[in-house]
């Protein structure tokens, strides 16, 4: 069962720098941001690398600082379903600043990597932080990770 709440569906293709809100079961919000579009190691047209920030807010205030070191869950690749179904509410966007994102991301549990990890460019790497799980998720993935991290 999905615990995060539906908001307004968004039919346009989200782009790098867009930010979005996720409404929690307790009517508070967390903010997410699209960091990268179309990863080289996941062969789909709509994969989006997102950050979900740890600040829990009473309103979807996107004027907060987008601190790359203040993530609730590790960076995650998701498809567009969170937006088209209304679980990720588009709040706006602006170009990313270099200090707002990590230059590379690690993803572990990769079945074809001898190290078990791969970076965002598809290279086999030793684990480094922040490190998410390899694969493409959706709003269900985010719901489970967020609710676990917040104890909801």
Distinctive features:
globular, 152 residues, single chain, mainly beta
Please count the helical segments: 2
Helix content: 10-25%
**What structural category do the secondary elements indicate?**
mainly beta
- Give the end-to-end Cα distance, rounded to a whole number of Å: 12 Å
Give unreliable regions as ranges: none
User: Major β-sheet, in short?
Assistant: 5 strands, antiparallel
Mean pLDDT comes to: 90
What oligomeric state do the depicted chains represent? single chain
Q: What gross morphology would you assign?
A: globular
Secondary-structure element series? EEEEHEEEEH
Radius of gyration: 15 Å
Task: Give the strand tally.
Answer: 8
**Strand order across the biggest sheet?**
4-3-2-1-5
Q: What fraction strand? A: 25-35%
Walk me through what this model shows:
There is one protein chain. The protein is mainly beta and 152 residues long. It has a domain at 18-103 and 135-150. It contains 2 helices and 8 strands, in the order E-E-E-E-H-E-E-E-E-H. The protein has helices spanning 81-84, 139-150, and strands at residues 18-23, 29-37, 48-53, 71-78, 89-93, 106-108, 117-119, 131-133. Strand 6 and strand 7 (117-119) form a beta hairpin. The mean pLDDT is 90.
């Amino acid at each position: 069962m999905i615990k995060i709440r539906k908001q307004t569906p968004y039919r346009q293709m989200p782009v790098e720098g867009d930010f979005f809100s996720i409404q929690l079961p307790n009517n508070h919000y967390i903010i997410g941001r699209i960091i990268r579009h179309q990863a080289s190691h996941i062969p789909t047209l709509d994969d989006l690398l997102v950050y979900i920030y740890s600040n829990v807010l009473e309103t979807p205030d996107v004027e907060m600082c987008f601190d790359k070191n203040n993530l609730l869950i590790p960076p995650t690749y998701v498809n567009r379903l969170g937006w088209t179904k209304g679980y990720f509410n588009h709040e706006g966007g602006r170009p990313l600043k270099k200090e707002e994102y990590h230059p590379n991301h690690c993803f572990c549990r990769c079945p074809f990597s001898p190290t078990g990890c791969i970076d965002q460019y598809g290279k086999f790497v030793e684990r480094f932080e922040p490190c998410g799980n390899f694969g493409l998720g959706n709003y269900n993935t985010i719901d489970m990770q967020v609710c676990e991290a917040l104890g909801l």
